[in-house]
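User: I'm curious whether this sequence folds into something compact or stays loose and floppy. Could you predict its structure so I can see for myself?
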Amino acid sequence: MEQILDSKGIITDELNKIIELCQTLKCEYDDKNSQLEKELKHITQFNKKLTQELKDKDKQLHFNEKKMVDYETMINEIQEKANKELSDKERFTIMKAQDKEIHERDQEIKRLQKRINDLESKDKGDKGDKGDKKDKKTLVDKMKEINNTQEKEEVTVEVEDVKVEDVEVETEVIEQSDCETEPLSEEEEEEDVEDVEILTYRKKEYYTFPNENNPKYIYAIESDGECGQKVGEFNGNKKVFYKSSKK
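Assistant: Here's the prediction. I'll summarize afterward.
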């Protein structure tokens, strides 16, 4: 009987040990499981944080790209404005240089005109000393002789016109009375001869009188070389042609 009780006691002790061990294992398992859940929760929170940061970075990147486009547009506008200002400055420099060149050529024209007048006076004096001279010359032939003595000096003036293209004025000057190209008589040679300039515009020649002022008119040249109607006038250094000829 004692053996049975001893065996029962032993069995009971072993069962208690087994139960205690199971309980211990369960607690350890629960602890580990709880720790794993905490770690998983931490990882989940970290992933969520990374996802939010990635989303914010994407927004920031999009904003930066948009800002870069705006900056690029602004830079292009500034560059275009700078190029325009540079172009305007260059155009002003060119116009200033052209004005200076026009002024210098106007001075050269006046110098040549004065020289022609001096030669004209000298030519008249030579004719008075010789007395009667039967040789009659046209104005154009007379001008050719003067040009030969001047070594054929020519000056071309380019003027910028608001309404028309550039006009070239050749300083080929001829002596002419009332724009006629007929031979001069002895009485006509004694009269004052007006100076005439030939103005070339669009491959067509016109007469102008340097002595005219306020305004200085532009005349057509007839087929026989005579002075025709007024077709324009000078407005400062600019040439303005009439839509219909003025009389």
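Summary: The two ends are 164 Å apart (CA to CA). The first strand starts at residue 156 and ends at 159.
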